[in-house]
């Protein structure tokens, strides 16, 4: 049986001073190497799930396992070891404006890895090449467009070779064409690097592109493919939250078949732009 990369069991969480739970009885698992796409409107609890995975906040009750390790009530020092296996792409990139592109990408390498300067430069150059920004090594974040900043954020998340990468609304504020290139990077990381992926988004366009795309190497070139028949899709699961509760779990094909009123409302108005 494949070990779960992430497991939530009956998780409840309320922010301090809040009388109601932000998350209520949340249970799901993500298989190692799999993809989970978490949907929902603003305030539904999507980003809170990622904070719990990182151990930035702790459950009120229930259990969270990351890589088979129970992190539900871990101390900060213990959590540092768990986070070594996780990459995080924050909303709008969250780059350090005072550091160069290279220093942003290699920030965790400086903190945690005993690399020579040559090894550092080689690793960072490889990551920037992976996201198509090799020539931006010495530039500052202020020299980058919004899409380029987001690609640097992806390079930073993958620099320490994590087993899983979390994406928190990675295309927020980007136009659809630039947003599509970020989704291509998510697919590329998943298929070529084997990283477990958790994508938080309210954009069905992004969700469906990631779910219905795959990339492979052919004669040294990268070839992207799109699967139109969603009945054939495997390896990607969808989870939809509403007011802190799961209202849908399953494959994309079943998302369209759901009779939950919130799911139907969420789909309405977005689905015609992408088809089924």
Fold and architecture overview:
By secondary structure, the protein is of the alpha/beta class. It has 2 domains: 194 residues, P-loop containing nucleotide triphosphate hydrolases (Rossmann fold, 3-Layer(aba) Sandwich), CATH 3.40.50.300; 76 residues, no CATH class. It has 10 helices and 12 strands. The strands form 3 sheets. A 6-stranded mixed β-sheet has the order 6-7-8-3-11-12, sandwiched between helices.
- Describe the strand arrangement of the main beta sheet, using strand numbers: 6-7-8-3-11-12
- Which stretches are poorly predicted, pLDDT < 50 over at least 5 residues? 272-276
Number of helices, counting only DSSP H or I runs of 4 residues or more: 10
Q: How many beta strands in the DSSP annotation?
A: 12
Radius of gyration: 19 Å
**CATH first level of the largest domain:** Alpha Beta
Report the structural category.
alpha/beta
Termini Cα gap: 32 Å
Stated plainly, the CATH topology of the largest domain is called Rossmann fold
SS strand fraction: 25-35%
| Overall pLDDT confidence | 88
What helical percentage do the residues reach?
25-40%
In CATH, the homologous superfamily of the largest domain goes by the name P-loop containing nucleotide triphosphate hydrolases
């Amino acid at each position: 049986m494949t070990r779960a990369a992430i497991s939530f069991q009956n998780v409840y969480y309320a922010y301090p001073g809040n009388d109601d739970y932000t998350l209520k009885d949340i249970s799901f698992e993500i298989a190692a190497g799999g993809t989970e796409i978490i949907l929902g409107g603003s305030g539904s609890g999507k980003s809170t799930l990622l904070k719990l995975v990182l151990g930035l906040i702790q459950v009120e009750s229930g259990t969270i396992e990351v890589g088979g390790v129970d992190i539900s009530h871990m101390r900060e020092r213990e959590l540092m070891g768990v986070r070594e296996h996780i990459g995080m792409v924050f909303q709008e990139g969250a780059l350090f404006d005072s550091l160069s592109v290279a220093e942003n990408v290699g920030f965790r390498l400086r903190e945690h890895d005993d690399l020579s300067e040559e090894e550092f430069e080689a690793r960072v150059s490889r990551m920037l090449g992976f996201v198509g920004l090799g020539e931006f090594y010495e530039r500052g974040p202020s020299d980058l467009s919004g899409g380029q900043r987001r690609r640097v954020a992806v390079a930073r998340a993958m620099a320490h070779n994590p087993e899983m990468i979390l994406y928190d609304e990675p295309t927020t504020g980007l136009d659809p064409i630039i947003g599509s290139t970020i989704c291509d990077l998510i697919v590329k990381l998943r298929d070529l690097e084997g990283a477990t992926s958790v994508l938080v988004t309210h954009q069905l366009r992004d969700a469906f592109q990631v779910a219905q795309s795959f990339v492979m190497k052919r004669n040294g070139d990268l070839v992207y493919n799109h699967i139109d028949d969603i009945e054939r899709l495997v390896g990607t699961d969808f989870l939809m939250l509403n007011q802190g509760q799961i209202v849908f779990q399953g494959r994309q094909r079943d998302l369209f078949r759901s009779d939950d009123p919130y799911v139907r409302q969420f789909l309405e108005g977005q689905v015609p732009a992408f088809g089924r």
